[in-house]
Amino acid sequence: MIIRMLGPTISGRAALSSYLVNGATLIDCGGAGFCGDLSRQSAVKHIFLTHSHLDHVASLPILLDNVYGMNPPPILHATSATLATLHRELFHDGLWPDVFELSERMAPFVWVQPLTHGEPVEIPGLKVTGVPIDHVVPTTAYIVEEPGAAAAVITDTAPTDEIWARLAAVPNLLAVFLECSFPDELANVAEVSKHLTPSLFASQAARRPPGSKLYAIHLKPQHHDRIVEQLQRFCPDAEIARPETDYAIGPDSER
User: Distance of CA 9 to CAs 3, 31, 111, 121, 193, Å?
Assistant: First the structure.
């Protein structure tokens, strides 16, 4: 399994949330439509959204427009709550055309598949399972599995329980991508916005099954260096995920 955190970047740091799995599946579309080339964008067959915040969906309208008519449209997977927010706030003709409605009466821009937490979605080569986590809007973490390897993408969240209970039962869990948004001195902001600081990150990461590689994601660019400094103290085994870098997830893989 290959997971790539996509750009675009600010001072070399990712500011938007998009994770490309095996070249054809996206988890979030914060920046995927703003970077890469058309061949990479048009290769996307499935898009799984964690939630409706802009840094996770901002480029979705652009990507759908970019690839319209090139291939069969991608399938959009999200909870009913997230889909309802997208339809009400983004795809309502004011900010962007209603691609949901247009897709029902002309050549489709996107196919929509509501996602239910805990029910695996089988797509070619992968099984993807959504798990609820604790954020200010309904939010989903994803467990992605292929034969011999599994990974989890957990963003955005406050300290939470269900995802760790689920991961304890996942065979071949080899990587956990976990958010860390604010430094510890902004713990009050993290608490209100339901994000993790380095000390909270360390307490959550300690709950992951043994043998899984740990990657820190979703670092706010303006706090990046301070978060890294604190992560090195609180959780020295965490690696900071880098934009446009392939992470090979497998029993014998080297990145």
Answer: 17, 9, 29, 31, 23
In the numeric block, the tokens 């048009």 are attached to 42
227-253 pLDDT tens trace = 999 999 999 999 999 999 999 998 766
Class at the top of the CATH hierarchy for domain 2-248? alpha beta
Tokens describing residue 115: 């996602």
* Residue ranges in the chain assigned as alpha helix (H): 38-42, 54-57, 60-67, 80-89, 99-105, 162-167, 187-193, 198-205, 224-234
Question: Domain extents for the chain?
Answer: 2-248
Backbone region of residue 202 per phi and psi (left: phi > 0; alpha: psi in -120 to 50; beta: other values): alpha
Could you give the CA distance from residue 152 to residue 245 in angstroms, rounded to a whole number? Answer: 17
Element (H, E) at 117: none
Q: What is the pLDDT of residue 74?
A: 98
- The H-or-E segment that residue 179 falls in is strand 173-179
Strand, coil or helix: what is 209? coil
pLDDT tens-digit readout, 177-202: 999 999 999 999 999 999 999 999 99
Helices (H), 96-236: 99-105, 162-167, 187-193, 198-205, 224-234
Q: Which residue, 16, 15, 80, 25, is CA-closest to 48? A: 25
- Of the candidates 136, 139, 195, 190, which has an alpha carbon nearest to the alpha carbon of residue 162? 139
Q: How far is CA 252 from CA 4, 148, 174, 212, 239, in A?
A: 18, 10, 10, 13, 18
How does DSSP classify residue 32? Answer: G
